[in-house]
Amino acid sequence: MKSYNYRFNEASIVALSTDALYVSHQSVRLEIRLNMADLREALLFTAKIAEGAERFDDMLTFMESIVDLGNDLTDEERGLLSLACSEKTMSPIRSWRIIKAILSFESEESHATLANNYLNELADEIRNLTSQTISMICNKLLPNATTAENKAFYYKMAADYNRYRAEIEKPNSQERKEVGEKCLAGYAMASEAAKNLPAYDPVRLGINLNLSVLYSDILDDEKRACEIGREALRSSSAELENANEVHYSLALPIMSILRENLVKWE
């Protein structure tokens, strides 16, 4: 029987198996027998609670357990997993960016050395987090993906985390070049999986948005970034009237970001 063990403050779910949920508080221990569907529902519910409480590490733990149960993720599960991974990874990335900016103004050598040491520690943390996420995508999510949209989403997600990794590597370094190539390959696979989705589909739009950001921010090719952004806007605008309400509401913010980026790059 496979078990998952958690520490969730002083009381909470402390273990999950393939057919049972165990809850403990102080000296009281409760065992709830669940079938697979109920277990998945329980994990999803606790993940939502963790999200509401802004306990994103716990949220990620519960969502990873859903992934471990097998089968493809629903749209809701996919979104919650993506959010949990993003919240855990973006926190050190935001810190890295702030310290990087501070360093650009720091003239005291001893202070710069201390800041650089801290920056390197954060970079190691980011490398570890991005590697864990990419491993989960490649080894667990993609093998279970059953729809073109999910495959495209997972390829895009893996490419995004490689892009985060590329950002922390030194400009013109071999490491940045190698990770940048992985990003391009990942977005290419995502685009291939999404080729039959409507141009306004938020996953397909997101691939083009993030690919354009890769060219601008990592590969230093704003001309190519603009070409990708303009084509994504042109094709999605032409088909947008056919979008359902959900796709329409999700597509508009992405298209807005594309327009803002084009103004900046052009």
From TrEMBL:
Residues 40-266 form the 14-3-3 domain. SMART domains: 14_3_3. It comes from the Eukaryota. InterPro entries: 14-3-3, 14-3-3_dom_sf, 14-3-3_domain. PANTHER family: 14-3-3 PROTEIN. Belongs to the 14-3-3 family. This is 14-3-3 domain-containing protein.
